[in-house]
């Protein structure tokens, strides 16, 4: 029997809605709906300008939003991963052992369809078993 391991990771990059770049975060309307929906996401974050600041923001987001046993990687302050994978605003990739992208769900959140990712994993595993 052959076992295939799939590893899930999170890559945290540039803050998508920083208060110093995205005016809506500061609006009372945004905060009203944010609170109404019960979002745990922080809305008081400025865009980090150093790697240390980004690391701290990523750790906070990981605790508040993800909080699961999943490796967290943090993009460099010059956004090398985002540039390579066009990671904003949301991306899900399946990358094989050779480093080749075998599934890219498309630009999120419009093309964000997790079911497609599940199907891609199933197809990948079925093909790897043959």
The description of the largest β-sheet is: 2 strands, parallel
Tell me what portion of residues adopts beta-strand conformation.
Answer: 5-15%
Please provide the count of β strands.
4
Shape: globular
Mean pLDDT: 79
Structural class: alpha+beta
Rg (CA only)? 17 Å
Distance between the termini: 11 Å
* Approximate helicity band: 25-40%
List the total number of helices. 4
Unreliable stretches covering 5 or more consecutive residues: none
- Quaternary structure state of the chains depicted: single chain
Strand line-up across the major sheet: 1-2
Q: Can you write the helix and strand succession as a string?
A: EHHEHEEH
List keywords for this structure.
globular, 36% helix, two-stranded antiparallel ribbon, two-stranded parallel ribbon, 130 residues, alpha+beta
Can you lay out the helices and strands and say which pair or pack?
Elements lengths: L9 E3 L15 H9 L14 H16 L5 E3 L5 H6 L7 E3 L5 E4 L9 H16 L1
Parallel strand pairs: 1-2
Antiparallel strand pairs: 3-4
Describe this structure in words.
- With 130 residues, the protein is of the alpha+beta class.
- Helices cover 36% and strands 10% of the residues.
- The protein contains four helices and four strands.
- The chain has helices spanning 28-36, 51-66, 80-85, 114-129, and strands at 10-12, 72-74, 93-95, 101-104.
- The strands form two sheets. Strands 1-2 form a two-stranded parallel ribbon. A two-stranded antiparallel ribbon has the order 3-4.
- Strand 3 and strand 4 (101-104) form a beta hairpin.
- The mean pLDDT is 79.
């Amino acid at each position: 029997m052959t076992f295939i391991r799939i590893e899930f990771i999170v890559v945290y990059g540039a803050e998508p809605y920083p208060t110093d770049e995205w005016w809506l975060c500061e609006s009372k309307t945004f905060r009203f709906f944010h609170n109404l929906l019960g979002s745990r996401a922080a809305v008081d974050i400025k865009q980090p300008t150093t790697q240390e600041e980004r690391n701290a923001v990523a750790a906070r987001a990981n605790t508040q939003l993800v909080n699961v046993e999943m490796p967290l990687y943090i993009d460099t302050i010059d956004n090398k991963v985002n540039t390579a994978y066009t990671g904003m605003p949301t991306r899900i990739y399946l990358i094989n052992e050779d480093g080749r992208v075998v599934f890219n769900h498309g630009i999120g959140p419009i093309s964000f369809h997790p079911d497609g990712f599940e199907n891609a994993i199933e197809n990948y595993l079925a093909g790897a078993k043959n």
